[in-house]
Specification:
The chain is built from two helices and no strands. By secondary structure, it is an all-alpha fold.
Length: 93
């Protein structure tokens, strides 16, 4: 196996790792969205300072996990693009 093939296999491994991280981040995002929905409902019904603070914190967590999901998606796209360029190069395109 040549150097180019090893690099492609390495990129495939990195893509698989990033996809696993992305799945985990999406699951966490779904969990935090559910918590934020509950916090919004509590803040609307009870309107206590604690409930409003909890809502702010859970909404902040949702925003943070959205950024994490976006980061992993962008990273996967970048690595896939690099891999595809190497595959084209290997095929003589």
């Amino acid at each position: 196996m040549g150097r180019l093939e090893r690099r492609i296999f390495g990129l495939n491994d990195e893509i698989a790792r990033l996809e696993a991280e992305l799945r985990q981040a999406r699951a966490e995002l779904d969990n935090h969205r559910s918590l934020a929905d509950d916090a919004a409902r509590d803040a609307a019904v009870f309107d206590t300072p604690f409930d409003r603070e909890d809502l702010r914190e859970t909404e902040s967590d949702v925003d943070r996990f959205k950024r994490i999901v976006d980061h992993f998606a962008a990273r996967i796209e970048k690595v896939e693009s690099k891999r595809d360029r190497l595959v084209s190069k290997m095929n003589g395109d």
